Amino acid sequence: MKLTLHALQLPLAHYTLSIDAVIQARVTAIFGPSGSGKTSLIELIAGLRRPRAGRIVFDEEILVDTELRTCVPPQRRAIGYVPQDGALFPHLSVRRNLLYGFQPDLPRPAGLSFEHVAEVLEISPLLSRNIATLSGGEKQRVALGRALLAAPRLLLLDEPLASLDAALKERLLPYLLRVRDEFAIPMIYVTHSPDEILSLCDDALILRQGQLEKRGSPSELFEISETPRYRLKD
Amino acid sequence: MSSELWQITWFTVAVAAGSTALILPGGLALAWLLARRDWPGKSIVETLVALPLVIPPVATGLLLLKLFGRRGPVGEFLENTFGWQIVFNWRGVVLATAIMSFPLLVRTARVAFESVNPRFEYVARSLGAGPSRVFATITLPLAFRGIVAGIALAFARALGEFGATIMVAGYIPGETATLSLSIYHLVQLGRDTEAFALLGLSLTIAFAAVWLGERFLRKNARA
């Protein structure tokens, strides 16, 4: 996979998000403080927002080009998006949530069958449950499964663990590792936890006020220190 | 009860149901556009839609009479093109009740659409759903309770409409006489007993409509 973000510009409330980067890793982290433009950036990639200027190219396909006035709508990008709270559809059962984007007739990678995804994420026992009865961690697993079953070529995860307590985070992280290793779908992972970046990601982009501040491998960017456990290297 | 009273009751319910059904597609589309899109002239349209709520119904009726009368710009066109006469017949009653209940439907449905978290729509699109599938499977079901409340309000407003209807359709027994128009007319003539019979019918219909609406919403909330 090669995702090119070329001279992207998106005006936000206090600054303009402005990014130039090529993303190729298996899992790329987007790290930065609250309000640094992380969510806006993945909404641009998903097609939920349009940039004021710039170009987004996925492999050879132009997704957005403001000069050519091209913008592929989100439903034709095949890019999965899992927001922070999972955003499971509250009026549908777990099963119907999972099947929302599932098109059995389309060719799909062998691993992405309903049964296999349900097995990897251990959601089979939840299938007949009502969304309101799921715990936070179960909701995130279903949201992840739902995005995977639409057979995306890229998965955007917006702080999937942020709303969970420490114990649940520990329990959910292995599922993310399984998704990474089992399905081989590249991921862009928004977080403000160096912990998660170090255990999951191969590449990291650090945003500050809408600008790319640093870029590198997680071990180059973060070092272990006493408090907090990890800190950004100078 | 005389067959005349039954006819009046039936006509009133049919007009209210018909005018509510008539404004439903356009009302929902407009409510969605107001809730989810920015477009030039939006605030003007918003104000125009709200006008029947704030100006006296009789004034709205007079305006409609001028527009849809046989020499009015719209009325003349409709008569020449389709052979439809709007004023002083049942079509006038439907027109007046539709216009008067339209703002209630649009405002309630708009709030219902606005209360749907756009994140659900975003996710649905990222799962491959186009705008119409998102609307039918996400937005509409999530806004459903609010929309039903809007339909109930519009229907109730149409049941009781008086001012605009009397201007546009007049009181013609057997042709435009609704419950409200008939009650007024019977009291004017001193036929209080019959007026009270119609009052009782009005109360029964209103009670049934509100009760059924509430029951439906409660049942839906549990589901």
Question: Which tags fit this structure?
Answer:
heterodimer; A: 234 residues; alpha/beta; five-stranded antiparallel β-sheet; 7 helices; B: 223 residues; mainly alpha; 11 helices; 80% helix
Task: Write a concise synopsis of the structure shown.
The complex is a heterodimer of chains A (234) and B (223). Chain A is an alpha/beta fold. Chain A has helices at 38-46, 94-98, 114-120, 136-149, 166-183, 194-200, 218-221; strands spanning 3-11, 16-23, 27-31, 53-58, 61-65, 70-71, 79-82, 154-158, 187-191, 203-208, 211-216, 222-224, 230-232.
Helix-strand string of chain B: HHHHHHHHHHH
Share in helix of chain B: over 70%
Number of strands of chain A: 13
Radius of gyration of chain A: 18 Å
Q: Kindly report the greatest chain-chain contact and the residue count on each side.
A: A-B, 28 and 16 residues
Morphology call of chain B: globular
Shape of chain A: globular
Poorly predicted regions of chain A: none
Largest sheet of chain A: 6 strands, mixed
The mean pLDDT of chain A is 90
Q: Return residue spans of chain B where pLDDT drops below 50 for at least 5 consecutive residues.
A: none
Q: Count the helices of chain B. How many?
A: 11
Secondary structural class of chain A: alpha/beta
- Rg calc of chain B: 20 Å
How many alpha or pi helices of chain A? 7
From the N-terminal CA to the C-terminal CA of chain B, the straight-line distance is 41 Å
